[in-house]
Amino acid sequence: MPSSHRKVAVVGISLADCGRVETATPYALHAQAARRALADSGLDRSVVDGFASAGLGTLAPVEVAEYLGLKPTWVDSTSVGGSTWEVMAAHAADAIAAGRANAVLLVYGSTARSDIKAGRRTSNLSFGARGPLQFEVPYGHSLVAKYAMAARRHMHAYGTTLEQLAEVAVQARANAAANPDAMFRDPITVDEVLSGPMIADPFTKLHCCIRSDGGCAVLLAAEEYVPDTAKEPVWILGTGEHVSHSAMSEWDDFTVSPAAVSGRLAFERAGVRPADIDLAEIYDAFTYMTLVTLEDLGFCAKGEGGAYVEKGRTGLTGELPVNTDGGGLSACHPGMRGLFLLVEAVRQLRGEAGERQVRKAGGRLPELAVASGTGGWFCSSGTVVLGRG
Predict the structure, then answer these.
(1) What local confidence, expressed as pLDDT, does residue 32 receive?
(2) Helices (H), strands (E): how many in the chain?
(3) What is the pTM of this model?
(4) How far apart are CA 336 and CA 329, in angstroms?
(5) What is the C-alpha to C-alpha distance for residues 162 and 173, in angstroms, rounded to an integer?
(6) How far apart are CA 373 and CA 283, in angstroms?
(7) How far apart are CA 93 and CA 219, in angstroms?
């Protein structure tokens, strides 16, 4: 059905088992998430003719598709870190709109935590020492240090405080308290964040994402499949993607993330403004990522992110609920977390979030959400605007 005007909806979402999953393989988590997403959609697996996956196997997504028993005619293995899934969703939506695919399944699964506990792998201090990275690795510039250096630059330029950065972690944990699937739910305070063990100045342990196992899946389909689905559709309204640098020396401004471009494109293509958005799901491997992405998506002016995150603005009943499941700082972070952002955004728009459900005035469900993923060390960004009804 060739058409460049077909609307595209998210028709199925799911989480695989998350948190501490010591008896499953990454392939098993992919399969579990895929089965659950299809069941959520009410569609038969035979409609799936597109598949997107990254991060597993030598020939991703070929190996994962084979494991799932799929033989897709459209595939994507784009890998740009945490923003992979927003970028993949954008590519899938374009393919469906153009008639190149009808239903595309995006799946992710990882046993990152269990693998480390069992000694099957070690932590990632860097992404390697090839290409442009060879000029930074000899100086001990680890992955977390790159984020920390960017945070320090924002503090220097705009007076952002350690307490303001810590407030991001505190609010994420408060949101997680209402999420039964979150890995950490006990409240934390700003003082507890600040007094924790130092990881990379200014980040203490609670400024950094947790490490978990887990997986999830999202099924996108063309509008003609919507009448046969089990749930109300959530529509893809607009998307944007952008890459800015690989070497830190090529990053023009440490206080501006690539979301400044991907967000603008997504909002323009969706025909909405940041002020119209009811909730935001933002990649938060570190507290600074949330703060600077809020600025770059246009929810506050550049340099005002620190003040914005104070006073509960990003809580479930705040001005702009952010990372309503607790995010990577408290809920789960099994690696490339971007797909979890889409799952939570859809869950909120459907009204399926239980105790953490966001409500508008009069108890109405939210109508618009944005999911914005960041990859590498602010190297890439993908932003998706989603709408209900």
Answers:
(1) 97
(2) 12, 11
(3) 0.95
(4) 13
(5) 17
(6) 5
(7) 11
